[in-house]
Amino acid sequence: MAEALVAAFTDNLLTCSICLGEYEDPRVLPCHHTFCYGCISNHATGAVTRGKTFPCPLCRKTTKFPKEGLMKLKKDFRVQKAKELLSQQHEVSRSSIMKEPDEHGVAHGIQEMMIKCEKHPTNELKYYCEDDDSTVCGDCAIAEHYRHGIVTVEKAAISKRKKIKTALEKTLSKQDTFKAAAIKITASELQDFHIREASINNIKKQAQHIRRLVDQKEQTLISEVNSAYDIRKKQKKANKDILENHCASLQSAYNFAQELITNGSDSDIMIQTKALTERLTAIEKMPFPTLDTPVQVSYCPGNISTVGLEAMLGQVAVQLELPLAGLETNPKTVTQPPVFLEKAECVHSFSAKQKDDTRNMSITGLAVDEQHVFIVDRMKRNNRTVVFTHEGQFKFDIKLQSPFDVAVSQAGHLYVTSQGDKCVKVYSTRGQQLTTMGLGQLELPHGITLGTKGQVIICDNPLIETKSLFTFHADSGLLLNTIPLTMCADSQYIAVNKVNDNIVISDLDNNCVHVLTPSGDQLYQYGTQGSGDGQLWCPYGVCTDSHGHIFIADWGNHRIVALSPQGQFIRYLATKDDGLKYPAALAINPAGQLVVAEEKGMVKTFQYL
């Protein structure tokens, strides 16, 4: 069994697909493809985009360039296991003792391989801190994780393995669906060939009677048929490539997870679980692409006569198919229109008000990134931005002068509108102030968001002057653009629709939401004062999801309104009957769920698709 395991590792895991040599310092990408560190560094450096991403050389899935450098890419534990096994096998081969390798010893050795602590190189990472979700050595557990929940890695790995296995099982049926669709496209190519030949033969038979008159028309019709099927063939190939890419991505994740479950040490499990389960969950939720409607080509012979060449030879009827979106240069999955759940489910909630805190809260701002939830509490005695984990554990707070709203960038910068300082304060996500922007330009900054190109956009809502949108460069703080909001009486919150770059603004006094083009022209508005359908009462926070849906915190009516990208009412995601009270700020978390911050401090997460 050990020899078979060694052979499997040698064939599948030890060769880099870029240099075709044995791995040197193997690093694994988020898509779970592995390359030499030097190879992937050269590739990423040459292929990096303006958005600081680079594609995987195999599956083309984009990877965010780590801000700390490519050394932050995780090492592939499987390759190290393979080398250990090969080394053992080599020693056995050189030995004069003619006996089978100790399979139990090899497996036990793999299980016992532990990763050393970076701060204490002689210590093994034998413990798991539940509070910080990290593996630590004994010294670190005492010095840096005092009073945290500490358990042994062996105990924690049991539940983590089960979590990976559960996520893995959900992806298997999705992989079979993609494989079956790819096979179906391949099988249909022969049928297409026969239909194509039959159409051309019928055209030729009909043309024999009037050849001298209709040569040109005959060739035109044949050209139409060939053109239609040539296009179909290209589209089929592109569709097949998309499906095969999905299959490859699924297989890669499956193989990695299976190897991790079977051969990964407890430390490997701890290191890989979070990223791998997120990847497997994303694959499990991956919608099946809508494939194209087959081209229908038919030939209708005409009655032979000396009049009307068009009628004599007939015509080719082609029902054109639309290609899958993005096939031209950058293939993307064509998704089914998302279906809202019959009733949105509150999957998590926590109170932003600490147990020993007797002060009231007044939440006005909310932002979410991969690790934290950022909340603005503008109650006069508080005046702070509070940082929590997704589970609701308090981390720290930042004191400001009358803060209102908050946004967080992928680069890890926190942007907070400060009405007291009449500017935007910029912090690291650890709370260190980096800079300010808009000082001397903003009068009463309210809502803030990030554009699709990373620019910072603020609603400035002075009491007397015209309301305006200010756009700043995220890094330099340079003012890029100003758009007057003449349609707004009291502009509060802002969001940018990632699907079409439209701008969504809540207008408190007019009890409506305005939707503008990127240049500031009004497309439409939703809402009038009231509590019925199509009405709003003091609309506060707004946000959009990856599908272009618009969400409105209807504060006075205690409900969340969901609109289509075109502004049509879809449904109420949550209402007072669901326990919702004075929703103030909204955000979409990395899992695609809607996070709602109520004014008095409750933070609730809803699954709505």
From TrEMBL:
Start and stop residues of the NHL repeats: 523-566
Domain of life: Eukaryota
InterPro entries xrefs: 6-blade_b-propeller_TolB-like (IPR011042), NHL_repeat (IPR001258), TRIM45/56/19-like (IPR047153), Znf_B-box (IPR000315), Znf_C3HC4_RING-type (IPR018957), Znf_RING (IPR001841), Znf_RING/FYVE/PHD (IPR013083), Znf_RING_CS (IPR017907)
Any one Gene Ontology BP term: protein monoubiquitination
Iron-sulfur keyword on record: no
Keyword flag Zinc-finger: yes
GO molecular function, one term: zinc ion binding
All residue ranges annotated as the B box-type domain in the record: 112-153
Domain RING-type: 16-60
Coiled-coil annotated residue ranges, if any: 200-253
Keywords: Coiled coil, Metal-binding, Repeat, Zinc, Zinc-finger
The protein's name: Tripartite motif-containing protein 3-like
Source species: Lingula anatina (Brachiopod)
